[in-house]
Amino acid sequence: MIPLDRAIETYLRHVAIERGLSDHTLSAYRRDLATFADWIATQSEVSSTGADRAGGASVVRDVGRLARADLAGFVTYLATREPTPLAPRSVARMLSSVRSFSAFAAGEGWLPLDPGASVRPPKAPMRLPKAISVHDMERLLGAVDGDDPVQLRDRALLELLYATGARISEAVGLSVDDVTTLSGVDEAADADTDVSVVRVTGKGNKQRIVPLGSYARAAVEAYLVRARPLFAARGSSTPALFLGARGARLSRQSAWLVIQAAAAGADLAEHVSPHTFRHSFATHLLEGGADVRVVQELLGHASVATTQIYTMVTADMLRDVYQTAHPRARR
Predict the structure, then answer these.
(1) Is residue 271 among the annotated active site residues?
(2) The sheet that has 191-201: what strands, in order across it?
(3) 284 with 147, same domain?
(4) Is 223 an annotated catalytic residue?
(5) What is the CATH number of the domain that holds 307?
(6) Reduced to 3 DSSP states, what percent helix, strand and coil does the chain have, rounded to the nearest 5?
(7) pLDDT tens track for 284-323
(8) Which of 49, 102, 148, 282 could form a disulfide with 116 if both were Cys (CB 3.0 to 4.6 A apart)?
């Protein structure tokens, strides 16, 4: 007999050591499984009074009694709990944590079968990515224009986000050495060709190489020469590309504030978040004729199906333009 809470702790140690999950991901797993364990305890208390458990789930005091009905009942609880039912995507995320734990428990021999294998999350409505127009992106980037060190850093950060489609965590995680120049020769033109690229480390520590356009390259170079040395002198030595005012690596929260300040300065009607840059990067590439497979590689998507969501955005835009511009589009 292994108590459920002890089994959960064993699982969390396993994923921390064997799978090398980040602290952020590990905290999410711990939080989700704590919610599950608390709900199980509540249902066990209800059952001990003689009341029936929702969904017909069994009383779980040790992990060996965990059943499919427990996971299914947990899903129902999350989706209908008062006063704050969770959205389908949030339910799916929490169920994923619990299913991962149940699969581990079955693999350890604590359960004869994996009770989570046949439990499916609620279907989430399709949410198309939010992108802003090229014109609005230019306004956003132009809102950060100045020669003081903070403005140079902020412009370099925003230009890099739009030029590479990097996630905000990937951008602030960059080191100076991750920005490099590849030299080549254009034999047809008999001229040297230099291309700046960024080595981005994404989910699962997978790395990808993304070109850096001329605008972003100029902004990053200006920051490296005229601003970063001033920040670096205020703190301990760090290889981080983007530094805060005290010389430490720029945090995600600080980068988010940079984006919000730029959006306010540009007076944009749309809500702008760090992911707006990533969505706009992908959408604008596809609108410009880029192949979806290329965009997949640039974004670091494991599946092209994820990237194809952006093709629906551009298709909707084409439809809207056609409906308003073609003289015989509608009666």
Answers:
(1) no
(2) 179-186, 191-201, 207-211
(3) yes
(4) no
(5) 1.10.443.10
(6) 60, 10, 35
(7) 998 888 888 888 989 988 887 777 777 776 766 666 666 6
(8) 102
